[in-house]
């Protein structure tokens, strides 16, 4: 599965803890992240991560483009609901695209744990069927 990892600044310690705790699951997947989140997670875990721009510079939109192209299977996005973000429209657009394309989206650690355990059990195999279907429709 292709997984996007994103966290706003105040949530970065949480996503790092999450990545350390679930490294044993994440290592078997293709990982993508916005700039600073990806850098911090790689530094702490050594997981290989494809890094996009930092969020405020367009990283959320780059991940959104992957979703629109059916190139992303899961989004884990630890949002900070208590701090205004200069790129709030990009954040909303990314979450909207997850809903448009039925991409599982966790916006906090409680939901992310459910998703990651589902990944571990193979609950997301339905994504592979959809991906195959979409490829053959092209
Ligand atoms: O702002 C972000 C998501 O909206 C995250 O960007 P960084 O990972 O570059 O901090």
Task: Summarize this structure briefly.
The protein has helices at about 10-20, 25, 35-45, 60-70, 90-100, 110-120, 125-135, and strands at about 1-5, 30-35, 50, 75-80, 105. With about 140 residues, it is α/β, with parallel strands linked by helices.
List keywords for this structure.
5 strands; Rossmann fold; five-stranded parallel sheet; alpha/beta; single chain; globular; binds 1,3-dihydroxyacetonephosphate; 138 residues
Fold blueprint:
Blueprint: E1 2-7, H1 12-21, H2 23-26, E2 30-33, H3 35-45, E3 50-51, H4 59-68, E4 74-78, H5 88-100, E5 105-106, H6 109-121, H7 125-137
Parallel strand pairs: 1-2, 1-4, 2-3, 4-5
The chain binds 1,3-dihydroxyacetonephosphate.
1,3-dihydroxyacetonephosphate is lined by residues 6, 8, 34-37, 54-56, 59-60, 91.
Catalytic activity: dihydroxyacetone phosphate = methylglyoxal + phosphate
Domain MGS-like: 1-138
Enzyme class: lyase
